[in-house]
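User: Fold this; tokens only.

Assistant: Input:
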Amino acid sequence: MKLEQNEKSLLFSETTIPDIFFAEHLSQLPGSYLKIYMYIIFLSKYKKDIKLNDLSKKLNIPLKSINDGLKFLEENNLIIRKSNGYIIVDLQEYTLHNLYSPNLTISKSKIEQNSKNKSRLKVIEHINNAYFQGIMGPSWYNDIDLWFKKYSFDEQVMIALFDYCYKRSALHRNYIQTVAESWASNNIKTYNDLDKYYEQQESLNKYKKIIARKLGKHSGLTQYEEAYIENWVLNYNYDMNIIELALKRTTYKQNPTFEYINNIITDWHDRNLKTPSEITAFLEQRKIQEKNAKNLKKSVNKINYEQRKYDNLDFLYANNINNKEA
């Protein structure tokens, strides 16, 4: 594997890393990948040719992790693959190019010039100071502006987005993008929407714990079982009072599955039953209908039995007459 670097970097005798790396990329690199990146930058200065096995031994990192790390660095635009090795990306040039690509990016100065975005600039400055210690990378300005446009978040939701990721020690683009996509898919645009979403999630988690406990699932619910509950609550708009009625029905069945419970609740939903009282009335009515059906069946069986008994007597009577005539 041959490593190269731009010729202008050979003018320096020391191995240098631009500050943009620390502002834009450091938080996204796992520890072993960071070791790989730092070492190949050092080797590239001398245009060293090193085999992956040797790199694995030198850094005390498994060969698979070396391959995974190089792939990760390539996907994150830190290195470029060539037929005989890799080129180290000039991060300053790469970032500058992205910032000033027409119709795709926006710089901090452009935001300041646009009066419509002055409130957003305050939000970005707050994010910079609160979560990046005042040294947020320049490409973040572009990302935040694009997220404003793509998801139609208001300023409070954008701050909440970064606060959510920061508290989970996941302040990197891929994670923030994933959370933003999730919020947008749940129709979150304003902070009031977000507040309702949090309440909804809190209720869901509470319901999941209650249901797991009542069904004796002490190890927790599977992803598919949780999906059933989310459907009952979010799509059917059923609360725990109605779900409780369905859970009680499981006492009539041995080893009931979630599919069995779901069939019960879905049947209620398809019948447009919306309250516990409506469901209770429906169950009582069906109980009466089943009882009447059983009684009717008994009556029919009794009539059939009497009819068969009568037919048998006629048969015997006919046989006796025939015997006498004979």
